[in-house]
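Anyone up for a design puzzle?
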């Protein structure tokens, strides 16, 4: 039962009970016409509503506004809607244009409206964000982590698109290489649920450091023990971990490669420790195409080429337990876009439809969003390529330079974590 249905049932039951008491009791003992619910029950109901609905309900009365604005309520709502019952929170596909200089636009695609209008393609809502070279480098608990990479310094800010609240730009690094680029080789954004802090991991000049938002503090931790294949880490909600595909070999990998050559390297924000997770066993023990690490349904997943004929999608049902790797799908090449060279699963819907970003060989506009139905093989719907805003003096870049993130809405505010906050009219 959805959140709005729960509210309707509870208030409906309370109204019927109030009317029944009015008939049975004498006038002095009759309840008021409108049902009076205990504050605890009201809070439980409100906790199960989407963030945008809660923003509207702030205007119902002063007590509701105070409750909905409190940091404890917001943290509980995040815990429930994003971790326990993710269907409650509104879901968006967001993206930025990597390496487009002077870019300050973010594209938002509501997943629900996307699915409800399959025959009409994608309608993208663009928002201008204060800053320059704005890129989305993480999404966690309702925050987007925005950076200005590549640039002559490294700045970061947290933005809640639902409320329009954002922290001020913070300069984190100002060390450059000979080409005047920040010396950052690895990056990751996530939430430390043990200490209730949002944090960033960076590797600068082979030194691994953790930045804590609000405390504005840096600590140096043990260096990353392996060579990461991904620049940005994949955060897994509820675990406090960043994850990268990694190898012991410094040189680039040539595929096919033995599956033991690549592992999942994890970093735990809570205890500041590393771990390694073996990839799932595949038939023949060989990975034929570059693997991709993603999160689906709040679980760590890996997708890689299988015998040059398709892709395997594996999900780790219990984080950290290598025995819990479960093969979810085998997707033949011909059932997506012909001649595709890589895919990145973005989201699994409740009906098991899979939203996938598909890359084709590098000619023209070479990426496409596809909804794939694994139940009816070959049943797919390819959306038209999302166009950039075009600039007369600047050619468009190809689609692989778009960075897509899945974003769940919440009411979390930068001010709750000691950050100076600006309001951005999105």
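Challenge accepted. My sequence:
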């Amino acid at each position: 039962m959805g959140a709005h249905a729960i509210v309707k049932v509870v208030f409906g039951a309370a109204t019927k009970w109030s009317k029944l008491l009015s008939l049975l009791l004498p006038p002095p003992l009759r309840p008021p016409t409108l049902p009076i619910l205990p504050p605890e029950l009201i809070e439980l109901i409100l906790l199960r509503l989407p963030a945008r609905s809660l923003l509207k309900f702030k205007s119902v009365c002063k007590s509701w506004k105070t409750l909905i604005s409190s940091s404890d309520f917001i943290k509980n709502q995040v815990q429930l809607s994003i971790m326990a019952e993710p269907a409650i929170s509104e879901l968006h596909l967001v993206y930025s244009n990597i390496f487009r200089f002077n870019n300050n636009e973010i594209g938002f695609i509501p997943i629900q409206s996307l699915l409800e209008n399959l025959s009409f393609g994608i309608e993208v809502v663009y928002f201008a964000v204060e800053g320059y070279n704005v890129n989305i480098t993480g999404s966690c608990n309702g925050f987007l982590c925005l950076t200005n990479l590549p640039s002559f310094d490294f700045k970061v800010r947290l933005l809640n698109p639902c409320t329009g609240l954002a922290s001020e730009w913070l300069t984190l690094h100002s060390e450059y290489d000979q080409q005047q680029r920040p010396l950052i080789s690895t990056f990751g954004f996530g939430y430390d649920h043990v200490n209730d802090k949002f944090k960033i991991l960076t590797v600068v000049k082979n030194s691994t450091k953790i930045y804590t938002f609000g405390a504005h503090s840096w600590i140096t931790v043990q260096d990353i023990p392996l060579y990461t294949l991904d620049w940005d880490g994949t955060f897994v909600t509820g675990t406090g971990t960043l994850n990268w595909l990694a190898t012991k070999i410094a040189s680039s990998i040539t595929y096919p490669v033995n599956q033991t050559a690549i592992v999942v390297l994890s970093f735990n924000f809570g205890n500041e420790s590393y771990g390694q997770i073996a990839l799932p066993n595949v038939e023949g023990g060989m990975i034929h195409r570059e693997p991709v690490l993603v999160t689906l349904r709040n679980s760590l997943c890996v997708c890689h080429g299988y015998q040059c004929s398709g892709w395997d999608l594996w999900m780790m049902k219990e984080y950290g337990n290598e025995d819990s790797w479960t093969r979810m799908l085998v997707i033949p090449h011909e059932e997506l876009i012909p001649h595709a060279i890589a895919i990145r699963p973005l989201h699994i819907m409740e009906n098991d439809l899979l939203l996938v970003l598909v890359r084709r060989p590098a000619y023209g506009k070479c990426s496409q969003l596809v909804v794939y139905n694994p139940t009816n093989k070959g049943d797919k719907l390819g959306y038209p390529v999302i166009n950039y805003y075009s600039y007369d003096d600047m050619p468009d870049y190809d689609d692989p330079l778009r960075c897509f993130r899945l974003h769940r809405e919440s009411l979390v505010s930068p001010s709750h974590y000691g950050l100076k906050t600006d309001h951005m009219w999105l």
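A detail worth pointing out: Confidence is low (pLDDT under 50) at residues 382-400.
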